[in-house]
Amino acid sequence: MAVPQNRKSRSRSRMRRQHLRTASPALCLESGAELPGRDAKGTGELRRRHHLGGDGIYRGFRFFHPKEKVIRPDEDSEQGFGPLAQRP
């Protein structure tokens, strides 16, 4: 079994491990104006590079329409919009 010849100091161990950290994801700002012939209106949101944004647009093309949030009425309330609705 391998046994270390000498003990390594804390600073040497940490210097060796400093490159083992996880990298942050590469993010870019969605502008859309950098491509000729495409829609110049950008969303201005941060997204991962080479991935779709939250609105379904990538490089000026729409790939899907995001689902809309549906507000369902609460069975207990008269007006149907949660626990703050007025009861008779």
TrEMBL record:
Keywords: Ribonucleoprotein, Ribosomal protein
Biological process according to GO: translation
GO MF annotation terms: structural constituent of ribosome
Keyword Nucleotide-binding applies: no
One Pfam family named in its UniProt record: Ribosomal_L32p
InterPro entries in alphabetical order: Ribosomal_bL32, Ribosomal_zn-bd
Domain of life, per lineage: Bacteria
Comp. bias regions, Basic residues: 7-20
Biased composition (Basic and acidic residues): 36-46
Keyword match Ribosomal protein: yes
Chain spans, region Disordered: 1-52, 69-88
GO CC terms of this entry: large ribosomal subunit
Family from the record: Belongs to the bacterial ribosomal protein bL32 family.
Protein name: Large ribosomal subunit protein bL32
Gene that encodes the chain: rpmF
